[in-house]
Amino acid sequence: MKARVHVMLKDGVLDPQGEAVRHALGSLGFLGVEAVRQGKVIELELSATDEAAAEVEVRAMCEKLLANTVIEKYTIEIG
Amino acid sequence: MKAAVLTFPGSNCDRDLAVAFERAGFEVARVWHKEPELPAGTDIVGVPGGFSYGDYLRCGAIAAQSPVAAAVRAFAEKGGHVLGICNGFQVLTEMGLLPGALMRNASLKFVCKPVDLRIATSDSPYTNEWAVGDVARIPVAHHDGNYTIDAEGLARLQGEDRIAFTYLDTPNGAMADIAGILSPNRRVLGMMPHPERAVDPAQGGTDGSALFRSILGAMAAA
Hints:
The complex is a heterodimer of chains A (79) and B (222).
Chain A: E1 2-9, H1 16-27, E2 39-45, H2 51-66, E3 72-78
Antiparallel strand pairs in A: 1-2, 1-3
Chain B: E1 2-7, H1 14-24, E2 27-32, E3 44-47, H2 67-77, E4 81-85, H3 87-95, E5 101-103, E6 111-119, E7 135-142, E8 146-148, H4 151-159, E9 163-167, E10 178-182, E11 188-191, H5 209-221
Parallel strand pairs in B: 1-2, 1-3, 3-4, 4-11
Antiparallel strand pairs in B: 5-8, 6-7, 6-9, 9-10, 10-11
């Protein structure tokens, strides 16, 4: 089973890299980009067969390692 | 007094930190990241700067899960002293021994230069040789030193006098100009600047020596 974790900075946290990307897009002539937020995607290949159990497990992985919940939020897609 | 200086794959300030402790009069043990225990009789742990585990995932995140990190956590929970510098500060926040997080510098650039630090509290084992308001010139060298914490956490740090150092001219966007913070029991210090790079005139200054002298003095008095 595959799981995909999206990690993003929390809404209130300034994202200097996203802001730099926004500026770069503007200088390339892409006008009207009002905000850019940058995150990461982590794909996991799991041996689990039960979706609900896998989600519980991946949530624990996010809390312990994959995300820094002080500044980041995450979402999980299973399957 | 015994200092244990950790080495992770990618640490690069471990030797300098060991030398700084030795110069101040500590006996130093070097500890590899796979060690599940600290040497018997350790008085303080030094978590050095560098790029542990290549900064994979997030700076300090993998080191925070290493065998030696579990030993450091147990040591700190029993009231042990821990000094984390630069990547070491990132490791300590990732371990949850210190609050907040260190984000990419606001400029997005690696900064490597001497900076002036204001001593924000002298009430700690690390800063008792200084007076509040003293200025120390100590180098920074980091890409992710932009200290961030929520408003409640910041108010708590301020209310409990746990901000150890602030920048006079912040090089990285850090909230409230924070360069270093203390744990609630004041025995764990995390700081981005490198005091171990300012202990010999050949390094361009010796302002960092006071930090190591402070620790030794505090421990000798305890």
